[in-house]
TrEMBL record:
CDD domains: AdoMet_MTases. This is Methyltransferase type 11 domain-containing protein. The lineage of its organism: Eukaryota, Fungi, Dikarya, Ascomycota, Pezizomycotina. SUPFAM superfamilies: S-adenosyl-L-methionine-dependent methyltransferases (SSF53335). It comes from the Eukaryota. Pfam families: Methyltransf_11 (PF08241). PANTHER family: METHYLTRANSFERASE, METHYLTRANSFERASE TYPE 11 DOMAIN-CONTAINING PROTEIN. One of its GO terms (molecular function) is S-adenosylmethionine-dependent methyltransferase activity. Residues 64-180 form the Methyltransferase type domain. It comes from Orbilia brochopaga.
Length: 309
């Protein structure tokens, strides 16, 4: 197994997510993933399951999730919600790779809530779910162990180290297996939700040059030798638009869970909160229950399925 001395996690993400992970803010504020996107992920897993052979055949899939955070995606992978078509695909072992100790602690707590024991020994552990320290270029599993690699809401943080990350992902993936990249992004394109662009403007002004997904910097991988040598160019992209019910407090917590907002000083965070609450007071909303202050929060989930050669 190879490793790199380079840390492929942005330093701001490493420090801020330790804070928001250990406090419970991140897990509380961030959304899960819509059934339509999860069904497409299980479609890809099923397509691979039907074609594979070798020692892991017939006993479920070995999955690596890099940048697993608090386990928001991991939980729906192991316990899919209603409306998700799984094709009876099962997970033999999920190795969640996460560099932040605060996030790993929150991962264990989240799994405990749904009754899933968590180990820390990786592929050799007896528990189905394992959470281990690691990064995009340091995945602690042997060559060709993974039937899929999933990265949810995280791959953009490997900016500047994409080549090393793609080499390492290719190393752990079996031939023909999928790399699945997925992101949730607040949908600012819908006229029915005019508050969303203003809220995004309020917090995106503080990005501090961080490589946010919305900027598309991560797409540089498609022109890299590390990608071309190891992955097919016929990847699939799917966008799923959906809404979830929220409140003003819920929107504020979502904003505060952004890494670069967490990293701000108390005075600046308070100023961002005031601006967000002013927007929510001023702009029209699509009400779910106006009496209780609940309204729609629109999201777009972007999903990429990329196949290992």
């Amino acid at each position: 197994m190879t490793s790199s001395t380079d840390n492929t996690v942005h330093p701001l993400a490493s420090s801020a997510f330790t804070v928001s992970g250990s406090s419970g803010l991140y897990d509380r504020a961030r959304p899960s993933y819509p059934p339509a996107a999860l069904t497409r992920i299980f479609d890809a897993l099923h397509a691979y399951y039907d074609t594979r052979s070798g020692p892991s055949g017939g006993c479920g899939l070995n999955i690596v999730e890099v940048g697993a955070g608090t386990g928001i995606f991991s939980r729906v992978l192991l316990r899919p919600p209603a409306g998700v078509t799984t094709h009876d695909v099962t997970v033999a072992k999920l190795v969640a790779v996460e560099p932040s100790s605060g996030m790993r602690d929150s991962f264990r707590e989240g799994m405990q809530r749904i009754g899933v024991p968590v180990g820390s020994n990786g592929p050799s552990g007896v528990e189905v779910a394992q959470v281990v320290d690691g990064t995009f270029d340091r995945i602690p599993v042997i060559d060709g162990w993974a039937d899929a690699v999933v990265i949810a809401q995280a791959f953009h943080w490997s900016h500047g180290h994409y080549g090393a990350a793609m080499r390492e992902i290719a190393r752990v993936l079996r031939r023909g297996a999928p790399l699945i990249l997925v992101w949730n992004l607040e949908d600012r394109s819908l006229p029915a939700h005019p508050w969303v662009p203003h809220v995004r403007d309020a917090y995106e002004a503080h990005e501090q040059g961080t490589p946010q997904y919305r900027l598309g910097l991560w797409k540089a991988i498609f022109e890299m030798d590390e990608f071309r040598e190891n992955f097919g160019r016929d990847y699939e992209y799917v966008e799923v638009k959906w809404t979830l019910p929220t409140s003003a407090d819920g929107v504020v917590e979502r904003v505060m869970s952004k890494s670069y907002i967490t990293a701000l000083g108390e005075t600046d965070r308070a100023a961002v909160e005031r601006r967000v609450r002013d927007v929510l007071t001023r702009e029209e909303k699509v009400w779910v229950d106006e009496k209780d202050g609940m309204f729609e929060y629109p999201y777009a989930t972007d999903l990429y399925v990329i196949w290992r050669k």
